[in-house]
């Protein structure tokens, strides 16, 4: 078993506890309810390098201009250039020493981690991690751009972890550009982000995932929102052999707005799984979830959207929608909305659709002289563009659009 | 221009057209009338190439070509246009982008060079005047959230842009108030020429006050049971369809 080599790694007490939790459970298998469509059992057959010292080739900052450029290269975090005013980057232990009140709160964060053994693996193997600390009232003129790049010559399991702390009244746009090089050997990219959005702070977070076929990426993005804060989250899953997103929103204050937008376009032999949780713990907040997928070739997609409305969370508005187009008769989509509502004065709705393109729309377009193939492409691009158009950074919007359009056109042979 | 001979069509097991014969020449306007369920909209759909219908017998020749042999997009490129009774909403595609794709695909079919952005701008501006349609409407997602009148004006705008040889208006008057009806009808009349022809499918005579037909045909149970001139439409308005139907029984 690949995990046998983990036993011999010497760790401190807390880290060893995390390792023991992982070893007790192992990699997720499809016997676990949360991983029904997404078994990672095959990872047991790979002789993993657990601590890669390689440096990726082609590590370049992205074309997006940022106030701050950050990189995680095979799990090693670096800052490119200088820090703007109002931003500090430091190790978690140093951050904890300066922010005892936060740590008290942090220790009670109560994430939903059942059946998430890879979180424990990440916890065990990341002996230290960085905190990006945006100070109260800071508004950056341009986004913070974080590039995560993986590229190895022997099969490697890569752990990356960041804590983003956005203080009261700060406004941040974060671009999370995740990639692996197509020439890379097998990768397990295991990525944890904890994001704290304090009172009256605003965060726009745009995550793009563009991985090689031989990459397995498991993403844990946990967002904790305090009163009067707003988060606009975008997850664009463009390429990847196996991508599993665990996106959690914990609504810990009143008058919080959480917007979750997702788009996935898996192609041949690709698997993309979006597991989202919105946990309404306080009253008077709103969440809007809009996910869309175009499934190409023989790809498989999963959407599992959970909404919890806790007994205290009266006057919650929680909306969820997931729409999918099967662009091929070999593609599969699995959807599962789950609502758990414990409060009585709430407005919640959910809806999922999976289907072919509308025959009525296709006939209408063809009756105007547009060929069937061109009509299909036009309809699919319009379908995905509605998510992409919500991104407000022009060059980022263009880059996402170009990659998604090229992928769809290539799959449809136009 | 159009020659329909003994046309039979069905949907599933149900035969809806049961032997239609119709000749249409360039420059003519033909009205197809008839009670609900007589096959009017089916005839329009079959001519445009809707695949839900199966043609079991008969032929349709359009400008010397076998129309039934062509895909819907080829029929459009040959000059057939169907104004839909219920125009389809296409989220995320604006009318202008839709029409640019359509025009350039048709030009490709005909072996012509594509139009560029400047040429489109000029052409759209000119065609917008036909139905008094606003630029802001054309920039919005096609038909999405449009009122009934806006949808039908948009249909006629598309017709103006594509400049068809044969326009088929399927119940274009349904859901229109009198002002919208007049605007739509004026658009159709401006587009009329000695080289094109129009088929107006309608339940009511009202539209024919504005688009005056050369010939009126009454469809009943999948056949044309009576043909005449525009006076026939007035007679139908006055007496309803029953007198024709009861005459058939006798």
Secondary structural class of chain B? alpha/beta
Shape of chain A: globular
**What percentage of the residues of chain B does DSSP assign to strands (E)?**
25-35%
The residue ranges of chain A in which pLDDT falls below 50 over 5 or more consecutive positions are none
CATH architecture of chain B: 3-Layer(aba) Sandwich
- Going across the major beta sheet of chain A, what is the strand order? 2-1-5-7-9-11-13-15-17-19
Characterize the main sheet of chain A: 10 strands, mixed
Structural class of chain A: alpha/beta
Order of helices and strands of chain A: HHEEEHHHEEEEEEEEEEEEEEEEHHH
End-to-end Cα distance of chain A, whole Å, is: 45 Å
Strand content of chain A: 35-45%
Number of domains of chain A: 1
Tally of contiguous helical segments of chain B: 9
Topology:
The complex is a heterodimer of chains A (414) and B (250).
Chain A: H1 4-7, H2 13-25, E1 68-73, E2 76-80, E3 87-91, H3 92-98, H4 100-107, H5 117-125, E4 130-134, E5 144-150, E6 156-166, E7 171-180, E8 187-197, E9 202-210, E10 215-225, E11 230-239, E12 242-251, E13 257-264, E14 271-280, E15 286-295, E16 300-309, E17 317-326, E18 332-341, E19 347-355, H6 359-366, H7 372-388, H8 394-412
Parallel strand pairs in A: 1-5, 4-6, 5-7, 6-8, 7-9, 8-10, 9-11, 10-12, 11-13, 12-14, 13-15, 14-16, 15-17, 16-18, 17-19
Antiparallel strand pairs in A: 1-2, 3-4
Helix pairs in contact in A: 2-5, 6-7, 7-8
Chain B: E1 2-11, E2 14-24, E3 29-33, H1 40-48, E4 54-62, E5 65-66, H2 72-78, E6 80-83, E7 90-94, H3 95-109, H4 117-131, H5 135-139, E8 141-142, H6 148-162, E9 166-170, H7 178-191, E10 197-201, E11 215-220, E12 223-228, H8 230-239, H9 242-249
Parallel strand pairs in B: 3-10, 3-11, 6-9, 9-10
Antiparallel strand pairs in B: 1-2, 1-4, 4-5, 7-8, 11-12
Helix pairs in contact in B: 2-3, 3-6, 4-6, 6-7
Domain ABC transporter (chain B): 2-246
Keywords (chain B): ATP-binding, Nucleotide-binding
Protein name (chain B): Fe-S cluster assembly ATPase SufC
């Amino acid at each position: 078993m690949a995990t046998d080599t983990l036993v011999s790694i010497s760790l401190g007490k807390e880290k060893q506890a995390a390792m023991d939790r992982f070893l007790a459970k192992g990699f997720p298998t499809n016997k676990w309810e949360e991983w029904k469509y997404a078994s990672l059992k095959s990872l047991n057959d790979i002789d993993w390098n657990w601590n890669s010292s390689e440096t990726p080739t082609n590590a370049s900052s992205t074309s997006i201009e940022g106030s701050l450029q950050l990189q995680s290269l095979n799990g090693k975090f670096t800052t490119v250039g200088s820090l703007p005013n109002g931003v500090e980057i430091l190790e978690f232990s140093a951050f904890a020493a300066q922010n005892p009140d936060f740590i008290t709160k942090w220790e009670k964060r109560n994430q939903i981690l059942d059946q998430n053994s890879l979180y424990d693996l990440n916890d065990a193997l990341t002996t230290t991690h960085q905190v990006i600390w945006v100070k109260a009232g800071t508004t950056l003129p341009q986004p913070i751009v974080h590039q995560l790049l993986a590229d190895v010559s022997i099969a490697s399991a890569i752990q990356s972890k960041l804590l983003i702390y956005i203080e009261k009244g700060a406004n941040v746009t974060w671009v999370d550009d995740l990639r692996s090089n197509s020439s890379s050997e097998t990768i397990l990219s295991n990525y944890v982000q904890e994001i704290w959005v304090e009172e009256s702070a605003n965060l726009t977070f745009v995550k793009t995932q563009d991985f090689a076929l031989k990459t397995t990426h498991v993403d844990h993005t946990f967002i904790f929102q305090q009163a009067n804060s707003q988060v606009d989250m975008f997850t664009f899953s463009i390429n990847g052999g196996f991508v599993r997103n665990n996106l959690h929103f914990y609504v810990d204050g009143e008058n919080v707005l959480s917007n979750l937008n997702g788009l996935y376009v898996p192609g041949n032999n690709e698997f993309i799984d979006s597991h989202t949780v919105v946990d309404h713990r306080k009253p008077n907040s709103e969440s809007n979830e809009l996910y869309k997928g175009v499934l190409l070739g023989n790809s498989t997609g999963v959407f599992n959207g959970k909404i919890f409305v806790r007994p205290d969370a009266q006057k919650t508005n929680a909306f969820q929608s997931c729409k999918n187009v099967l662009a091929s008769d070999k593609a599969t989509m699995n959807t599962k909305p789950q609502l758990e509502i414990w409060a009585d004065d709430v407005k919640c709705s959910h809806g999922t659709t999976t289907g072919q393109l509308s025959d009525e729309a296709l006939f209408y377009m063809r009756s105007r002289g547009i060929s069937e193939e061109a009509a299909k492409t036009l309809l699919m691009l319009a379908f995905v563009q509605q998510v992409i158009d919500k991104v407000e950074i022009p060059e980022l919007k263009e880059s996402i659009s170009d990659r998604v359009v090229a992928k769809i056109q290539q799959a449809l042979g136009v | 221009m159009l020659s329909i001979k003994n046309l039979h069509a069905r949907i599933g097991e149900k035969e809806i057209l049961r032997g239609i014969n119709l000749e249409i020449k360039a420059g003519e306007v033909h009205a197809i009338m008839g009670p609900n369920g007589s096959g009017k909209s089916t005839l329009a759909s079959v001519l445009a190439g809707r695949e839900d219908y199966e043609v079991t017998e008969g032929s349709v020749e359009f400008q010397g070509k076998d129309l039934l042999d062509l895909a819907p997009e080829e029929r459009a490129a040959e000059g057939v246009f169907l104004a839909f009774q219920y125009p389809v909403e296409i989220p995320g595609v604006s009318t202008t982008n839709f029409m640019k794709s359509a025009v350039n695909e048709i030009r490709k079919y005909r072996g012509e060079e594509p139009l560029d952005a400047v040429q489109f701008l000029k052409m759209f501006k000119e065609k917008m005047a036909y139905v008094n349609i606003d630029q802001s409407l054309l920039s919005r997602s096609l038909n999405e959230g449009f009122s009934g009148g806006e949808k039908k004006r948009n249909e006629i705008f598309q017709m103006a842009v594509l400049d068809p040889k044969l326009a088929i208006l399927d119940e274009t008057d349904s859901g229109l108030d009198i002002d919208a009806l007049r605007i739509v009808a004026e658009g159709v009349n401006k587009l009329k020429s000695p080289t094109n022809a129009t088929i107006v499918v309608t339940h009511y005579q009202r539209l024919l006050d504005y688009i005056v037909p050369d010939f009126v045909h009454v469809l009943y149970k999948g056949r044309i049971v009576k043909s005449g001139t525009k006076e026939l439409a007035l007679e139908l308005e006055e007496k309803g369809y029953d007198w024709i139907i009861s005459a058939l029984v006798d």
